From TrEMBL:
CDD domains per UniProt: PBP2_LTTR_substrate
Domain HTH lysR-type: 4-61
Keywords: DNA-binding, Transcription, Transcription regulation
Protein name per the record: HTH-type transcriptional regulator GltR
Coiled coil: none
Source organism: Pandoraea anhela
Pfam family for this entry, one: LysR_substrate
Family statement: Belongs to the LysR transcriptional regulatory family.
Superkingdom of source: Bacteria
Gene Ontology MF annotations: DNA-binding transcription factor activity; transcription cis-regulatory region binding
């Protein structure tokens, strides 16, 4: 048997982790033919087949799974040893990040710092519902995500971030339609279009439960998967909805939406930074460090 190439071992472990040759190629900053060639070379050296195709993903064969279960811990230990002494300024590759709409209001500042830290790294940023981003993280289609809520999963490492404030808002156009501001809260809620973030999100049941506790019988329930678009719908339809203050403040300051506090008190939701527990790459760790640093500053400003 010829000597094993460490890069080939890293490649098959990466494919097993992220699920496809193309995703592994992005992660390893290599072309897909190069990744395919590494796998074939290792298969020829060992005399085994690592993967078989199932749908769009590559599935490990039984002998491939047994081999990677034995080898991957050793590869991870080596990566950790290298990471300790790595100079991330020369790092290359594409990081796939899942960043929610609200997080995008401050993530640009983190990205600016990361560009100074790692000028050769590229970023592929997706915005989606938290549930969808977690599924993509689990399947290896994302490297890291910032999601709503507290997350506990054996596959994920997590860092708690500062909570975001949400407020119940009503589009100011409701006043132009002869809306009776003196009516009680339940009547207000029953008379206006209600806007919620789409049902798969944690915000939908939470928002609906709040309104029912206020005595409302929601009849005009509308949903939107994008909170920025939802805010626009609230403004233009004179509707009511629960929106992050980070997004709503410009419209509040301009008088285009009305804050329904204290009739409907503000709420908060937690943010969590999530990445896979088997992730040891120095560039991922640097992203985690920068997000946590920004979060600590964000918290201190709020306290002040």
């Amino acid at each position: 048997m010829s000597r094993l190439n460490l890069t080939n071992l890293e490649t098959v472990c990466c494919i097993a982790r992220v699920g496809t040759f193309s995703a592994a190629a992005e992660r390893l900053n290599a072309s897909q033919p190069t990744v395919t060639g590494r796998v074939r070379e290792l298969e020829q050296s060992l005399g085994i087949q690592f993967f078989r195709k199932r749908g769009r993903n590559m599935e490990l064969t039984e002998e491939g799974r047994q081999f990677i279960e034995r080898v991957e811990p050793l590869v991870i230990q080596l990566e950790e040893a290298v990471t300790t002494h790595a100079d991330v300024t020369s790092a290359r590759g594409t990081l796939r990040l899942g960043i929610g709409i609200v997080t995008m209001t401050w993530f640009g500042r983190v990205l600016a710092q990361l560009r100074r830290d790692m000028p050769l790294v590229q970023y592929d940023i997706e915005t989606d519902l938290s549930m969808n981003m977690l599924h993509k993280l689990e399947s290896g289609k994302l490297d890291l995500a910032v999601v709503a809520g507290r997350i506990e999963h054996p596959m994920f490492a997590t860092r708690s971030l500062a909570a975001e404030e949400l407020r119940w808002l009503m589009g100011a156009s409701a006043m132009e339609e002869g809306f009776d501001e003196a009516c009680d809260l339940a009547a207000k809620l029953d008379s206006r279009p209600l806007w919620f973030v789409s049902r798969p999100s944690e915000f939908f049941p939470r928002s609906l439960d709040t309104l029912k506790k206020c005595g409302a019988s929601p009849l005009h329930v509308n949903t939107c998967s994008n909170m920025i678009s939802m805010l626009r719908m609230i403004e233009e339809t004179g509707g009511i909805g629960l929106v992050a203050m980070a997004l709503a403040k410009p419209l509040l300051d301009a008088g285009r939406v009305i804050d329904l506090s204290p009739q409907l008190p503000p709420e908060c939701y937690d943010l969590t930074l999530v990445y896979r527990t088997d992730e040891r790459q120095s560039i991922i760790q640097r992203v985690v460090e920068r997000i946590v640093e920004h979060d600590k500053l964000h918290r201190s400003i709020r306290v002040a």
